[in-house]
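Q: What would this chain look like folded?
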Amino acid sequence: MEQQTSAKAGKKAAVRASIALAGFAAFAAFLLQGDPGIVYLWVKALHVIAVISWMAGLLYMPRLFIYHGDSEKGSVQSETFKVMERRLLNVIMTPAMLLSWLLGLYMAAMIYHFEGGWLHAKLLAVAALTGVHVFFARAVGQFGRDENTRSPRFWRLANEIPTVLMIVIVILVIVKPF
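A: My prediction, written as structure tokens:
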């Protein structure tokens, strides 16, 4: 049985992700030819799916860092965490973040015309969430080079940042307080 942490398994995952993204792009191109009302509903649904995927990664990655930080450098466990972190970042989180931004900006421009204080505040919060993503991506690199200097306690606290930003974003989108 092939190990899921092998290079071959990683290449298979990358191919599957590329096929999925190509299929998504083809579907999006087809969709944009249709009725604007239906297009909006599809864009909104796909945006929510992308955001959920991105948030799942943002919430799971610090947990991996906590366990990775507790493992001995160079151990089988540490090497497995490196593979898990890299794949989570490259196969799920980054594509989901890019789709979230692309679809969100489409709606902000086409539906809301970039108007409304709530939308500006939401975009600011999403930019902060992107900053968290970049911070985690850098940490994946540091863990990959066995250069992590942060404690598992730090990562437990860092795990709360995406949650707080998510709460702010959801309130801004649903309540539109200003």
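Helices lie at 7-31, 36-70, 76-110, 117-144, 152-158, 160-175.
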